[in-house]
Amino acid sequence: MHFSFRPLLRASAVLILAVVVACSSTSAATRVPEPAQDLPLAKTAGQETLVIAGGCFWGIQTVFKHVKGVTSSTSGYAGGPAEAAHYEIVSSGSTGHAESVRIVYDPSKISLGQLLKVFFSVAHYPTELNRQGPDYGTQYRSVIFYSNDDQKRIASAYIDQLNKAKAFSSTIVTQLTPLKGFYPAEGYHQDYAELHPDQPYIAINDLPKLDHLREMFPELYVKK
User: Fold this and answer.
1) Tens digits of per-residue pLDDT, 120-134?
2) Which of 31, 106, 125, 150 has the fewest CB atoms within 10 Å, i.e. the most exposed one?
3) How far apart, in Å, are the Cα atoms of 88 and each of 85, 92, 99, 131, 187?
4) How far apart are CA 88 and CA 74, in angstroms?
5) Looking at 56, 70, 90, 185, which residue is catalytic?
6) Is 193 inside a domain boundary?
7) For this structure, is 56 an active site residue?
8) Would residue 99 count as lying in a domain?
9) CATH code, domain with 189
């Protein structure tokens, strides 16, 4: 079953609905330890890609646009077939897709472990199963779509580390899944949070994540 408050919030700024969403907001942050396993910074500039999912892709995309070393972040779909990579179909929750973000970054400026630290601490709640705040369904699940052995190893080790450290009150439910394809979302989804900062859903659920990024990781935050 799937349900999302986003279409309602796009259509109306009803105060009662905004209060309901605020009560289940995804804007809280958790301080997490440094990854015990990580790759060293590359000696020369380059380009690597990481695909992650953690609820609505609007918020994830805008967070990583402001992370040092990230050259681009793109909203899209991963986990399902190419023919189903359309918002109206993905929203049914039956395609296997998750609303995802493809992060392209320079490994000489930021490491994989540091990106994962941002993902787990300020970008989403990794303990919520098939939901994030007001949105629920498998398309909002927490996933790291790894594309090589290093990504799988480091992500798996960090999840184990966070669970053993009891960084969260519940067990992390983030899935580790091999990346089979990433499909960019429709144009109107790109940079949505920054283009619509006054929309209630964005103001309540997404913009506070940027505040947490700036406050908790000033060394990683980049103003755009």
Assistant:
1) 999 999 999 999 989
2) 31
3) 9, 7, 12, 18, 14
4) 18
5) 56
6) yes
7) yes
8) yes
9) 3.30.1060.10
